[in-house]
Design brief:
Blueprint (H helix, E strand, L loop, with lengths): L1 H31 L11 E7 L1 E17 L2 E4 L5 E6 L6 E2 L4 E5 L2 H36 L5 H33 L2 E3 L4 E3 L9 E2 L8 E4 L4 E8 L3 H9 L4 E5 L6 E15 L4 E8 L11 E18 L4 E3 L2 E7 L5 E5 L1 E5 L3 E6 L6 E5 L10 E8 L15 E2 L21
Parallel strand pairs: 1-22
Antiparallel strand pairs: 1-21, 2-11, 2-15, 3-10, 4-6, 4-9, 5-8, 6-7, 8-10, 11-14, 12-13, 12-15, 13-14, 15-20, 16-17, 17-18, 17-21, 19-20, 19-23
Helix pairs in contact: 2-3
């Protein structure tokens, strides 16, 4: 019994020593750990930016497909052996450039035949006209019957019609002969050669000889939601609308052009309207068949207050920002956002220019909390590009707002 009591006492002493040692080791670490969640732990470090008053362009963003302004599949119009191919694949050719030649032997012979036939009929016609002149003089002295004179007039008319028929046959044979020389119908870039020299080609061939694509200028077809049709039509009625195309990084503008056509009907299956824009494509940055991101400028907001999108928070009562007052304390300011994207927000009400708004460090902020601005940033310029691909510019303060980083207790209060 005494041994058991000593064992229990020894265990209790060991537990007390272990607890004391643990407390002694953890005490310095506790003293070094910062305390969060209280407003009296000193100023809160934040990053702030100055609001500005700028002209802000209003863009409508969409995805488009590049299409050649004109595309032609060059096909032979007569049958024959391909004597020569006079272009190289990928060559830029002008309208009328000789692309290939077909053996013209049989077509040249047919042309020579109708030319000779016309010459024969013209000689016969000349002789008939001389006889007609004689018959007219003889008929005046009643030396021949009137019927013979009428018959000769009819013969002359018949031969004149035959000469006209011969000329038509010559024109037809000449056209067929000219078809043996295949020329480019438009200016553009040739594609991959379909038929090689020496092959027999036929007018019924569906593949043709080569495809010519006009790349300069070039067009893009893109769609926008039908809800934006009114904005587009109002802006388009005032003049040409600029359209910009983004490169592979979705940030760099590679080509600028103009809106040319707004389709005459909305697609009921998708609820979108189709638009067509045209671009000079001088540097050949646009290639038919590719998908690109485009944006259409429909308006410019003049001298409006802009703030970084990161500064706009959303609480139970709506959107708000933290404004840094001159005494380095923050005020919760309700704001109305009329337009925003990934970079900047247009503030319709609630802010003025040159006010400091918090963009980073919301976790410990409350109304009237003291802050230390560790870095002051300028508001983004209106032409700043978003970091991610854009599909549609968001409108209104209730759409597309970022999640608030602040705690629920940091929602805007009625007093400033």
């Amino acid at each position: 019994m005494a041994i058991r009591r000593r064992s229990i006492a020894t265990a209790l002493v060991a537990l007390v020593l272990i607890g004391a040692a643990a407390y002694w080791w953890q005490q310095p670490a506790r003293q070094q750990q910062p305390r969060f969640g209280r407003g009296d732990d000193g100023p809160v470090p934040v990053i702030a930016a100055l609001t500005q008053r700028n002209d802000v362009p209003v863009y409508l963003d969409g995805v488009g497909t590049i299409r050649a302004l004109n595309t032609v599949t060059v096909r032979p119009q007569v049958d024959g052996r391909l004597l020569s191919v006079n272009y190289t694949e990928g060559q830029q050719v002008d309208s009328g450039y000789v692309l290939a030649k077909i053996d013209p032997t049989t077509y040249q012979a047919a042309y020579d035949q109708v030319v000779a036939k016309k010459a024969l009929d013209e000689a016969t016609l000349a002789n008939a006209r001389l006889d007609l002149e004689r018959y007219i003089r003889l008929a005046a002295s009643n030396s021949i019957a009137r019927q013979q004179l009428d018959t000769q007039k009819a013969l002359v008319a018949q031969l004149e019609a035959q000469v006209k028929l011969d000329q038509a046959q010559i024109d037809n044979a000449k056209a067929i002969l000219d078809y043996t020389t295949i020329t480019a119908p438009i200016s553009g870039r040739t594609g991959i050669r379909v038929v090689d020299q020496g092959n027999i080609v036929r007018a019924s061939d569906s593949n043709g000889i080569v495809v010519i694509t006009q790349l300069q200028p070039i067009s893009i077809l893109f769609t926008l939601p039908q809800q934006q049709l009114g904005d587009v039509n109002r802006a388009f009625a005032q003049g040409p609308l600029p359209v910009e195309v983004f490169g592979a990084d979705n940030k760099t503008v590679v080509e600028r052009g103009e809106l040319k056509v707004v389709d005459n009907q909305v697609d009921p299956s998708t609820g979108t309207i189709k638009l067509k824009a045209e671009f000079a494509n001088r540097d050949l940055q646009l290639w038919p068949g590719a998908f690109v991101n485009v944006r259409l400028l429909v308006n410019t907001l003049k001298q409006v207050v802009v703030a970084p999108t990161a500064a706009v928070q959303r609480g139970p009562t709506g959107t708000f920002v933290y404004v840094v007052r001159p005494d380095n304390k923050v005020a919760v300011r309700p704001v109305t956002v009329s337009q925003q994207d990934e970079v900047q927000a247009v503030i319709a009400r609630g802010l003025d220019a040159d006010e400091r708004v918090v963009t980073t460090g919301f976790a410990r902020l409350t109304a009237d909390a003291a802050v230390t601005v560790t870095k002051a940033e300028a508001a983004p310029s209106p032409d700043a590009q978003p970091a991610q691909p854009r599909r549609e510019r968001r409108r209104g303060g209730a759409q597309g707002q970022q999640r608030s980083e602040a705690s629920p207790s940091a929602s805007p209060s009625p007093r400033q």
